[in-house]
Amino acid sequence: MPTPAPQYCPTPRELDDLELLAAGALAPVVAFDEPGSPVTLTLPPDVVAAAEAAGSVELVDPEGLPLARVSVPGGVVTPLTDAQYGPFRRLYLTPARSREQYAGRTVVPVVDALTEDEIAVLAGAGPLLLLALVGHGTPGLSATGLIRATLAAADLLPDAAVVAVPLASHGNGDVDHALGLQVVANYAGPDPVIGVPDSTSPCPPSIQAIVDQELPEPADQGLVLFFTGLSGSGKSTLARALMDRVLEQGARSVTSLDGDVVRRHLSAGLTFSKQDRETNIRRIGWVAAEISRHGGLAVCSPIAPFDETRQQVREMVEDAGGAFFLVHVATPLEECERRDRKGLYAKARRGEIPEFTGISSPYEEPEDADVRVDTSGRTIEAALDDVLEALADGGYLDLSDSPVVEQRAPASVVQTPVPDDRPLKVLFVCTANICRSPYMELHARQLAGPDANITFSSAGTHGFRDSAMDSEMAALLDATDRESFRSRPVTAALLRDVDLVLTAEHTHRQFILDDHPAAFRKVFTLGQFAEVTRDTDLRGRDLVTYAGEHRGPADTALDVPDPYRRGPEAARACADQLQELLRVVVPALADTSRLPT
Ligand SMILES: Nc1ncnc2c1ncn2[C@@H]1O[C@H](COP(=O)(O)OS(=O)(=O)O)[C@@H](OP(=O)(O)O)[C@H]1O
Ligand SMILES: Nc1ncnc2c1ncn2[C@@H]1O[C@H](COP(=O)(O)OP(=O)(O)O)[C@@H](O)[C@H]1O
């Protein structure tokens, strides 16, 4: 049985070349990889092997539609289908079809939006065929934008037709020029070709409108902010601080693609091998590019150790019309290792984690970063300022007017708030929702009493459904509902529904904020919230608002450690600590009678 030909989806440049080869537009070049020709096809090694065995490869479009069979070796193209989709497909004619329809016209290659002066000169040149040279990697307008602008120019000329030609850039000006001359000559046949005269005049309004839409000012463009650096360098911390500022300013929506978070969802199951890291970064790049395509802001903070993959992300984003802004968080390895927030460097040094970036796996320093920040010996705010300044200088994002830490007036002069009779909803969170958070929920309910306009519930970051409360912690409660308590995991709906989330440890808070950064004003550790409560006379909802405005990183010293399976003494200590904190927090939250004056 003959070996089936493998399928391969070529790069955008190769797809354009394929279309021109199949159309006969590159003649005398008729196949890929002819000696000295820039029209090449690079197959991955595994595809080469299969293609050589089968004698050919089947090239497919990004959706898997077979376009052509290409002999291997030989590079000879046998078309299988014409490309059928894409904007203005009807205008992509082969040289033969174009000559059938438009022979006798003067051919004008067009690579940019035509200006008033250029159109005035062309208006006197008789019947024209405007050849819009659109192709991957060519500067300026997108393919669709250039065709729209050329059609608008044709409307302003006495007699002009438009044909689109997917002439991609091969990364070398001379090569591109020579290839362009050849392609245009094939379309023109015996007809004359004239160049567009040089001019610096403005475009006519109908064309300028298309250009403006295509090339928005940086501030109106989608933006991908990409933090790269070693583990512990400060990528997530800076990215989060920046997102807080964006959310506070309120002018843009923002999506976080943090390294750790992506690996829990989009890239679950991937390892830290070079190949898997590349896959991980390309996935992040793909999502970020889509966000930027729609004008959004994506903040990515993976290690992204390889230059080539970072370049691919840049290309994906720019192809989608977004701007790519690279921040190198250049904190030296020694400092990252000294911080060793997650204890990973120590493990890597002991050889317990293979391929650890900086220790046993490389980190390629970027040479194309828009800004480089070393966070050692600096505050987070100072490091963030460097990023914000570079963003503002580039015209991408100006957060200088964001109400950073809007200094609220002291409690005594805060205006009387509009009364709000809805019950205040408080959610307590710990890991499994069987020890600390149920204790908080049930004890808080007792402290508040039956008449308080407040509800308490609880959930776990890694909670199973329907487990009973831990017996050791339950024994320390005299609440009657402790027997009927059942655990549940935190969900987005639960978080949306409540006014305040109080967690046992800072890691729980971080877990929630990684996935729901916009909830940053209502998620605190219990210890952190107790500190804020002690600082102010505000009560009820005002206290929650005040805490949201004055929040900072949660101090790990205020965490309530997990007593699970650590014996009765640990359970007793945990219950004592929770009681002390709840005695501060619950009366203040439940008390709406003492509104500030
Ligand atoms: N072998 C190895 N090397 C590097 N990092 C490791 C490794 N194993 C686990 N971790 C943890 O995973 C986080 C990095 O994941 P990323 O997805 O950002 O890495 S990569 O971009 O795909 O290289 C990284 O998180 P950050 O500290 O936030 O960077 C580490 O906590
Ligand atoms: N100037 C600073 N900027 C950012 N992080 C800092 C700074 N100074 C100290 N740090 C600390 O360094 C650690 C960086 O961790 P993280 O942001 O998770 O890094 P990464 O995401 O790169 O692994 C945090 O504990 C943070 O508090």
Provide an overview of this structure.
- The chain is α/β, with parallel strands linked by helices and about 600 residues long.
- The chain has four domains: about 70 residues, Sulfate adenylyltransferase; about 130 residues, no CATH class; about 180 residues, 3-Layer(aba) Sandwich (Rossmann fold); about 180 residues, Response regulator (Rossmann fold, 3-Layer(aba) Sandwich), CATH 3.40.50.
- It has 21 helices and 16 strands.
- A five-stranded parallel sheet has the order 9-10-8-11-12, sandwiched between helices.
- The protein starts with 6 loop residues before the first strand and ends in a 7-residue tail after the last helix.
- About 5% of the residues have low confidence.
- Bound molecules: 3'-phosphate-adenosine-5'-phosphate sulfate (PPS) and adenosine-5'-diphosphate.
- The site of adenosine-5'-diphosphate has 17 residues, from helix 8 and helix 14.
